[in-house]
Write a structure and sequence with these properties.
Elements: H1 4-21, H2 26-29, H3 41-50, H4 57-71, H5 76-82, H6 84-105, H7 117-132, H8 137-142, H9 145-173, H10 178-203, H11 218-234, H12 242-262, H13 271-282, H14 284-309, H15 313-328
């Protein structure tokens, strides 16, 4: 055919141009490669979990548990009826205390939480129906254990999001300042108890044994542990993805909290970990002092025992002299 050489030359030229451009021919070098990397079901699960929105259901659970904890305090219902403004302000401290404390530490306006009108109205509505609902229906419904387990578990999910948000927010001010990131993450996740301690101090109801600075509760300890882990992950000192760590840490929080509620234990002790850390960091001097005391007591015991069990030659001579004098008498 007369046009065959021209067609062949054009096809060869097209193949050469494709190779120069970096686009190999599908028929020569195999099927085209797609740029999409297939993710495992575990990655898809953790990614979807990390993108979960806290509004409105998880926020409602957080406000419900916080305000119910306020209502169970002695005299809280009477204060709500006599001075509703004071009760509402205390409820907002319970709901937004972590954000307020983190703003104070970063020299930001402490009342910035009031700019989020939707969350403030939502928390205020929950405060109102808990304290002023007819026949106390909300409190009665919350008294069922499954409802408490569900609400408390959802509240622990929000704790993870607050820690991550605090660490990320502190990194915007202090790039890779890991101490500041740990403090702000801990304040955002468990600062409500500290803020309410100041509120009780102003009211005259503060007790030293209940202060979070002097005696940290289990939520404060586990929040501090989470803040350390997320800070190290953010600074690339912990080789794990953020969504994986968020999922695993949240499962740990929810499991321990539900276990505490089911077994009716007020705290789940971290004494083994604390004991190991205290021995590693602060127990060397104590161990050396104990070893020194043991060696001293052992040496003194050996000295007294040897002196009594093995008499000296001088003692033997004195004893023979005493026997001879008795015989002469």
């Amino acid at each position: 055919m007369p046009g065959a050489p021209a067609v062949a030359s054009r096809s060869c030229g097209a193949l050469a141009r494709q190779r120069r451009r970096g686009n190999p021919s599908p028929g020569l070098l195999g099927p085209p490669r797609s740029g999409v990397v297939m993710e495992s079901p575990w990655d898809e699960l953790t990614l979807a979990f990390s993108h979960t929105s806290m509004f409105p259901f998880f926020d409602i659970a957080h406000y419900l548990v916080s305000v119910m904890a306020l209502k169970r305090q002695p005299g809280a219902v009477a204060v709500a009826w006599k001075n509703p403004v004071s009760s509402w302000f205390t409820a907002m401290l319970h709901c937004f205390g972590g954000g307020i404390l983190s703003c104070i530490l970063l020299a930001e306006p402490p009342l910035r939480f009031l700019a989020n009108h939707t969350n403030v109205l939502l928390a205020s509505s929950i405060w109102y129906i808990i304290f002023f609902c007819p026949c106390d229906l909300v409190s009665r419904g919350y008294s069922f254990l499954p409802v408490q387990l569900l609400a408390t578990g959802m509240k622990e999910v929000t704790r993870t999001w607050k820690i991550v948000g605090g660490v990320t927010h502190a990194n915007n001010y202090y790039k890779d300042g890991w101490i500041v990131m740990i403090v702000i993450g801990w304040a955002r996740g468990a600062g409500g108890a500290i803020i309410t301690s100041f509120e009780q101090l102003l009211k005259g109801h503060w007790k030293p044994e209940g202060d979070e600075w002097l005696k940290m509760s289990y939520p404060s300890k586990v929040t501090l542990l989470g803040s350390v882990m997320f800070t190290f992950q953010h600074t690339k000192h912990l080789a794990v993805s953020k969504h994986h760590l968020m999922f695993l840490y949240t499962i740990f929080l929810v499991t321990t909290k539900i276990t505490m509620m089911v077994t009716e234990t007020s705290t789940m002790t971290l004494a083994p970990l604390e004991d190991i850390l205290s021995r590693m960091l602060f127990g060397w001097q104590q161990q050396f002092s104990l070893c020194g005391k043991k060696s001293e007591t052992k040496a003194s015991f050996n000295g007294t025992g040897s002196s009594t069990s093995k008499p000296t030659p001088e003692d033997a001579v004195e004893s023979t002299k005493k026997k001879n004098t008795k015989k002469t008498e």
